[in-house]
Amino acid sequence: MSELISALDALGADDLHALTDAAVLERTALLVQVVNRASAELTRTVRCADATQAAEHDGLKSMRSWLIGHARLAPADASRILRSGRVLEHFPTLAAGFAEGSVTPEQVDVVARTVGPTEVARAGGQGVDLGAFDEVWTRVAVASPHQSLVAAVQAFEDALDPDGPEPDPTEGRRLTIATHADGSVTGRFDLDVTGGEKVKAAIESIVQADRPQGDARTRAQQNADALVQLCDNQLAAGSLPTLRTVKPHVVVGIDLADLVDPATGAGAGELGFGATISAARARYLACDGSISRIVMGPDGVPLDLGRDHRVVTPGLRKAVERRDKSCVFAGCGAPTWWCDVHHLVHWLHGGETSLNNSALLCERHHTKVHHGFRVARDPDGRWRTWRPDDTEILIGPPR
């Protein structure tokens, strides 16, 4: 092990910029193989520890718990390693390819997610030759794109049940959401064919409806914005089930001094699920929301709770929607149900909550306006947009 660490230290000292393009690519391919081999050895070692209940040595009941607590792995990664170790015992050719570095850990997991103890037992009972699948899967994994192995593994499921009984589409659905230390969120989902089609259709409808001029977002960014917009639409509609006795909504807690201070104020506001945001972001959310006043005592106990006050009333929103008809940011035109009512002069700074001081902005452009961009309405009713450097964004021929 010490020689392995020394070799890695030596690699880390190499000057990569001194290498040719061919040498960099060759090094990359070699490192992928090394990572695969190291992953195979980790999987083999964890499988041994799992079988011998080695985690009891440190007072833990399982290797999954040990990997999460001692190695600081994400729960999903710990489960993947254990799952892979168990399935490789039934597929020695695949295990050999993994050990020599030509098969990746992700490819092994494609098999492991499908072929568990139940499937192995069913194969034995039906006379299905696991060895044949072992050989085919390994050849596909070594020589073909990743998705080809997914199709090859599907053939195993078809062999176990050639008639293909109508499955319960909810059985294979999974959605995991992880919140990181800075409050950002990542996730993964697995859906059946029908469920996936519904999600893609819903997201695609918003992506195709929101293509403003000059949009430089990647497709992944467009999809993410569309997902947030779907949730925003549902939250705004008020038709979701109640959550902790109230309609689900975004909750922000912030001290009054931080809210009215024009400084950015990083980490000043706390969201309902525990993440922190800047005071500037809280002011953005306060543009079109409900405000509740809570007076706290010196010991942190609430002394007084004021009534909720809706900053933008339903009547005012209807009037703004009727006047603006869509997002007023130059080149956008997102529909009213995607938009917030923005205060041109924030109510924190004395701006009136009135029709003349309001503008309809979609989430993306509402954020832009709170980060230096500016919109204003001419006396003739024409909306105009300026960049942070005070140059105007013009659409069509020059004025």
From TrEMBL:
CDD domains: HNHc (cd00085). GO terms for molecular function: endonuclease activity; nucleic acid binding; zinc ion binding. Pfam families: DUF222, HNH. SMART domains: HNHc. InterPro entries: DUF222, HNH, HNH_nuc. Residues 315-367 form the HNH nuclease domain. Belongs to the Rv1128c/1148c/1588c/1702c/1945/3466 family. This is HNH nuclease domain-containing protein.
